[in-house]
Design goal:
2 domains, 10-stranded mixed β-sheet, 8 helices, Immunoglobulin-like, Purple Acid Phosphatase, chain A, domain 2, alpha/beta, globular, single chain, binds fe (ii) ion
Length: 489
């Protein structure tokens, strides 16, 4: 057992099932791999311990522990902690998922885009206080370099140049350690089990498969102008390794080393499909231009998911016997057009319209119903209807809820225009986009029951320390059998 060491990054649980979960921590201030004890109990005083097992904080994985615990009871609250010879970690808790035949309601929170410098993790702390079965992080858990100026005490000095730009494995590890030292983020990890998928900033802005963003012609620079200190290929490898170290997820049997896509059955009511929209895609068309006409965005033969993932996804959703099909999608499925009919951003599904149409039309033909897409990426709250074309004129397939960003600044700051201008431009997306909020930061919560899904968009003030009060800025309902979104308030 380790004699020394500190638990400076809290504890986390992930990828729950009815009988199991993956538990995580990182041991700091040790030199070599160290043994720890892990305890799981049904009470937070650890009087009724149901598991006690030795685990290893592995130096080769930045002293992280990933332990799959099995043999638990479905739908039950558990508590866990790690210990060295003389220290306990904080106590974390998780609820196992309901049994596959249970019709128990599910409450799920989802969020994305937590740039450290842009603000405080008030959204995460507020989610920690919610009664949730699951938290989904849709990506941009870290940002690979500096993007935003925020509160004066949120300065990222990771990386060899101490400017927040990370490229080597050591630097990505520094980045995760900095993020995970945040107490409000730790609170959310300790409060609920998570599932995570990555988006671009876990590696590099707008990368596409094995290539950097085509918007930057100079191979020695990132698209934002930072000099490359390692090749893109090596950077991606470093970033993926650090990602798997930093999250409570296990490589499952039969999965490729860096595979993050797959599905999780959530009790008797829902199945959650996780997709990877970065690792296998072709480059964005038209050099990833913004607000520019791009006929290639509709050209067939370009892939977003890659051949294998697409094959699995096309089949798996119609094959699911779950009532609700929840799709965790990093990037927006609905079109965002400016002007009408012309996609504004080519990094999302809009840049890969033929594949979007192929998948959604296949599902429509197979009779897929009750599809709800949960989306990140765009730092904006959007909600609306998903059709086979992504916009008006296509056949309705389901609905999409885009959960804003936890801290990262939105389109008004990015484009340097007032949100009223964006609202005017967004009118080109009427009627498929029914709700848009460009200004606020926050997260979303859905409650899944047999007859309906209720959703709430919740905003926080991300610029004031520990301001965890939330304002519900949008409420929606999706009725079983009806592929259209109803706004309640
Ligand atoms: Fe983001």
């Amino acid at each position: 057992m380790a004699k020394n060491g500190k638990f400076a990054h809290g504890v986390a649980s992930g990828f729950p099932s009815p009988k199991g979960v993956t538990l995580w921590t990182r041991l700091s201030e040790v030199e070599r791999s160290s043994r720890l004890m892990l305890e799981v109990a049904t009470d937070d005083d650890f009087r009724r311990v149901v598991k006690r097992t030795r685990v290893t904080a592995d130096a080769g994985d930045d002293f992280t522990v990933h332990k799959r615990v099995t043999g638990l009871d479905p739908g039950r609250q558990y508590y866990y902690r790690f210990e060295t010879k003389n220290k306990h970690s904080r106590v974390g808790r998780f609820r196992t998922l309901p049994a596959p035949d249970s019709k128990q309601k599910l409450k799920i929170g989802f969020f994305s885009c937590q740039d450290y410098e842009a603000g405080y993790y008030n959204a995460q702390a507020a989610m920690a206080d919610e009664d949730l079965d699951l938290v989904i992080c849709l990506g941009d858990y870290i940002y690979e370099h500096k993007y935003y100026d925020g509160p004066a005490d949120r300065v990222d000095r990771t990386g060899v140049n101490e400017d927040g730009d990370v490229q080597s494995l050591d630097e990505y590890r520094q980045k995760y350690r900095m993020y995970q030292a945040d107490k409000q983020l730790q609170a959310l990890h300790a409060a609920h089990p998570w599932v995570t998928i990555w988006d671009d900033h876990e590696v590099e802005d707008n990368y596409a498969g094995d290539q950097a963003d085509s918007a930057q012609p100079d191979p020695n620079l990132e698209n934002s102008g930072y000099p490359r200190r390692v090749s893109f290929e090596r950077r991606r490898r470093n970033a993926y390794k650090a990602y798997f170290e930093a999250h409570p997820r296990l490589k499952r049997k039969g999965m490729e080393k860096n595979q993050i896509y797959g599905s999780i059955r959530l009790g008797g009511l829902a199945e959650l499909f996780l997709t990877d929209q970065r690792q296998y895609r072709d480059p964005q068309p038209c050099d990833d231009g913004v607000l520019t006409p791009c006929p290639d965005a509709q050209a067939p033969g370009r892939t977003f998911l890659g051949a294998e993932q697409k094959k699995w996804f096309k089949r798996a959703v119609p094959a699911s016997d779950a009532k609700w099909k929840l799709w965790a999608s990093e990037l927006m499925v609905m079109s965002v057009d400016v002007p009408a009919g012309q996609a504004a951003i080519l990094d999302s599904w809009d840049g890969y319209q033929a594949e979007r149409g192929e998948i959604l039309t296949h599902w429509k033909d197979k009779g897929v119903d009750n599809l709800v897409v949960l989306t990140g990426d765009i730092h904006t709250f959007f909600a609306g209807d998903v059709t086979t074309t992504g916009r008006q004129g296509g056949d309705p397939v389901g609905v999409e809820l885009v959960g804003g960003s936890a801290t990262s600044l939105g389109l008004p700051e990015y484009l340097n225009v007032d949100s009223s201008v964006l609202h005017a431009l967004a009118a080109a997306n009427d009627p498929h986009v029914k709700y848009a909020d460009f200004d606020r930061r926050g997260y979303a919560v859905i409650e899944v029951s047999k007859k309906r899904v209720r959703a709430q968009f919740k905003a926080v003030d991300a610029l004031t320390k520990r301001a965890t009060a939330t304002t519900t800025i949008g409420e929606f309902q999706i009725d079983a059998g009806d592929p259209t979104l109803h706004q309640l308030s």
